[in-house]
């Protein structure tokens, strides 16, 4: 029996059973700091591992001790163990042959040290027992609280680890860890909300972290601030589109400026300290073009730290979402028949959805017309666009279809409300300082009832856009929510292009990052 939770792209499992039976990269041995393993017939985790591994492991690990409490060492697995390694964590300090002591600090350090060993060895899966419950008589509730907190915090960072298991032998420990895992999952998945608005006092930011008090701070606001951001953003767009080697430096330059001169100090401090996984971003219409997601704190961009979903503010009533379709996917690509990359993207996605049993319609070239779009939209759950984008006489972005452009005004009053609209549109926005024109059509889809819109802040290379879209949809099909799917797509593009290219940073998301547009219940991480 087990319970599973998604912590970002990684999995946390609470398992009722014997840790020595698990087929993982490593199991963790809760050991004394002298690294003298328990006798084979002993009741501890150490004794159980020794029974399966043999006395050779006991002799090998003893030669590595003693170590400081809270540290960990690793040995290869042996005997009939199904894992590759055993990590021996000094959870308990042996004071006398019969006295064993530990502290919260030692427990936390033991978890961290074990996870760091796993990271250093490139391990993808690891299993823990309940630390300190038997030898040091630590209450299950205390052990579960400390261990779950440390593991979930670690899983939110960069690491090859994909799965962490807590293996508990008795139902009482299972329930204690299960209950703490639920609470921790709710804590880290509950979104925090960042709002920015222009007020008479200046540019005001408000960060609501779900408690009784929200943080508010204000910086002076002048039009020259937008002009400065715009110049930096144009330099970033140019570097990205021309594939310059300093594109990553331009990204950090813009991101550092946003972090230090746009986001107020109080809000910066709270964002750095937050352990939340999800961030809802609400910007005034005047500020919609500011790519706050790219703010860089010296280590990472906000879009790397958080799963960010923007929200659009509208006056008056908003169209209600229509009835959910049965995962009908509609793909429009290369309406002008002059973009082979867009055509290849449409065909690749058509095959991907078809291989997984989803109903999919592909329209390209002359068939990618306004009339066919209008006829297919009522049944579409997902609408994907890959083709030319251009600006109309109002300065708003529109899609270039075979028989004319699809404008923002064309969507007003339509009853069709797809759950997800993904726009991989090429084409530059003339005289668009921050690129908000690229987002106008997506915001129109949202106002008519769509739940999600994904678009880019600048023109993306054909290969990158196809790779991003494929990775994103694969993750959705695998059951991951929109926030995790976007994170997986960014990681895939980063790995493919290397650190110098920044196409991964161009995509922004309107909608709830906890939802999966292909699944009905997507906010629950339990299995």
List the helices and strands and how they pair.
Layout: E1 2-7, E2 10-16, E3 26-32, H1 45-53, H2 55-62, E4 72-76, E5 85-96, E6 99-101, H3 104-120, E7 125-128, H4 140-155, E8 163-168, H5 171-189, E9 192-199, E10 202-208, E11 215-219, H6 223-241, H7 247-262, H8 265-273, E12 278-283, H9 302-305, E13 307-311, E14 329-333, H10 340-355, E15 360-364, H11 370-376, E16 382-391, E17 397-401, E18 404-406, E19 420-426, H12 437-447, E20 452-456, H13 462-477, H14 482-497, E21 507-510
Parallel strand pairs: 2-8, 3-5, 3-7, 7-8, 9-12, 12-13, 14-15, 14-16, 16-19, 19-20
Antiparallel strand pairs: 1-2, 4-5, 5-6, 9-10, 10-11, 16-17, 17-18, 20-21
Helix pairs in contact: 3-4, 4-5, 6-7, 10-13, 13-14
Description:
It is a single chain. The strands form three sheets. Strands 1, 2, 3, 4, 5, 6, 7 and 8 form an eight-stranded mixed sheet that branches. Mean pLDDT is 86; it is low at 521-527. α6 packs antiparallel against α7, α10 (340-355) packs parallel to α13 and α13 packs antiparallel against α14. The protein has 527 residues and is of the alpha/beta class. The chain has helices at residues 45-53, 55-62, 104-120, 140-155, 171-189, 223-241, 247-262, 265-273, 302-305, 340-355, 370-376, 437-447, 462-477, 482-497, and strands at 2-7, 10-16, 26-32, 72-76, 85-96, 99-101, 125-128, 163-168, 192-199, 202-208, 215-219, 278-283, 307-311, 329-333, 360-364, 382-391, 397-401, 404-406, 420-426, 452-456, 507-510. It starts with a strand and ends in a 17-residue tail after the last strand. The chain folds into three domains: 2-189, 3-Layer(aba) Sandwich (Leucine Aminopeptidase, subunit E, domain 1), CATH 3.40.220; 192-311; 329-510, Rossmann fold (3-Layer(aba) Sandwich). It has 14 helices and 21 strands.
């Amino acid at each position: 029996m087990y319970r599973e939770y998604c912590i970002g792209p990684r999995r946390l499992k609470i398992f009722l059973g014997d840790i020595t039976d698990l087929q993982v990269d490593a199991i963790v041995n809760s050991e004394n700091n002298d690294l003298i393993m328990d006798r084979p017939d002993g009741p501890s985790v150490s004794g159980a591992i020794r029974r399966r591994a043999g006395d050779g492991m006991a002799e090998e690990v003893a030669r590595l001790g003693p170590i400081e409490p809270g540290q960990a060492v690793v040995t290869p697995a042996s005997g009939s163990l199904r894992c590759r390694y055993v990590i021996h964590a000094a959870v308990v300090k042996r004071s006398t042959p019969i006295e064993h002591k530990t502290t919260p600090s030692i427990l936390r350090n033991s978890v961290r040290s074990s996870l760091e060993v796993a990271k250093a060895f490139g391990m993808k899966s690891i299993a823990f027992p309940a630390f300190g419950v038997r030898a040091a008589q630590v209450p299950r509730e205390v052990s579960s609280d400390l261990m779950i907190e440390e593991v979930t915090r670690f899983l939110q960072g960069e690491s090859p680890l994909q799965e962490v298991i807590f293996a508990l032998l008795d139902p009482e420990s299972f329930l204690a860890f299960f209950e703490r895992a639920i609470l921790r999952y709710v804590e880290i998945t509950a979104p925090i909300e960042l709002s920015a608005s222009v007020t008479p006092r200046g540019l005001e930011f408000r960060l609501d972290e779900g408690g009784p008090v929200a943080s508010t701070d204000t910086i002076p606001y002048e039009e020259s601030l937008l002009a400065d951001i715009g110049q930096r953003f144009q330099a970033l767009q140019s570097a990205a589109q021309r594939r310059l080697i300093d594109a990553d430096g331009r990204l950090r330059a813009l991101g550092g400026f946003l972090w230090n001169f746009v986001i107020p100090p109080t809000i910066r401090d709270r964002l750095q300290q937050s352990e939340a996984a999800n961030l809802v971003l609400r910007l005034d219409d005047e500020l919609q073009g500011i790519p706050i997601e790219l703010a860089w704190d010296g280590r990472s961009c906000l879009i790397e730290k958080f799963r960010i979903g923007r929200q659009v503010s509208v006056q008056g009533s908003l169209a209600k979402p229509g009835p959910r379709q049965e995962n009908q996917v509609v793909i429009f690509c290369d309406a002008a028949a002059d973009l082979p990359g867009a055509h290849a993207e449409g065909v690749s996605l058509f095959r991907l959805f078809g291989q997984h049993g989803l109903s999919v319609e592909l329209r390209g070239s002359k068939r990618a017309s306004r009339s066919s779009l209008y006829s297919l939209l009522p049944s579409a759950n997902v609408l994907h666009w890959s083709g030319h984008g251009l600006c109309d006489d109002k300065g708003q972005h529109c899609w270039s279809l075979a028989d004319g452009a699809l404008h923002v005004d064309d969507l007003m009053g339509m009853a069709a409300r797809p759950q997800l609209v993904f726009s991989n549109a090429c084409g530059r926005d003339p005289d668009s300082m921050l690129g908000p024109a690229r987002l106008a059509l997506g915001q129109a889809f949202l106002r008519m009832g769509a739940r999600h819109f994904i678009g880019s802040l600048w023109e993306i290379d054909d290969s990158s856009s196809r790779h991003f879209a494929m990775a994103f949809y694969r993750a959705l099909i695998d059951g991951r929510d929109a926030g995790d799917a976007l994170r997986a797509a960014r990681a895939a593009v980063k790995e493919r292009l290397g650190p110098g290219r920044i196409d991964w940073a161009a995509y922004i998301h309107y909608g709830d990052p906890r939802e999966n547009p292909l699944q009905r219940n997507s906010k629950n991480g339990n299995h």
